[in-house]
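I hope you will forgive my troubling you with a question about protein structure. The full record is reproduced below for your convenience:

——
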Amino acid sequence: MSIKVELDALDAALGDFGYAYLLTTGTDAKPHAVAVTPALVDGVFRIGEPGRRTGANAQVHPIVSLVYPPATPGGYSLIVDGEAELAGSELRVRPTSGVLHRPATAEHPATNPGCEADCRPLAN
């Protein structure tokens, strides 16, 4: 189940989350994940100084994702796609899309006929 998050609403959505995983891809096409604590400043995520591999990956393939894990089991993850750039020693990510997501499982009310308050189908 996914709910689109408008870019101007990211700041409000972030209140429910702590850290994120930054996902990058290297020249070998292998994914690389690191835990980060980004700050959203003027619509851009500021991550601080990236590690050697993360920085190199972002320079080669600037399309990245930030995945904020759910605060509670069964809760939503926040997934933000964006474009990364190195600005001095800081990695910055300009978001291009965001979505709240969680699996639709039989244990979750959203898959049952009596849909709970957070069941919102996406328009095609």
In short: Helices lie at 10-13, 52-60. Residues 52-60 form the longest helix (9 residues). The beta strands are 2-4, 20-25, 31-36, 39-41, 44-48, 63-68, 77-87, 90-101.
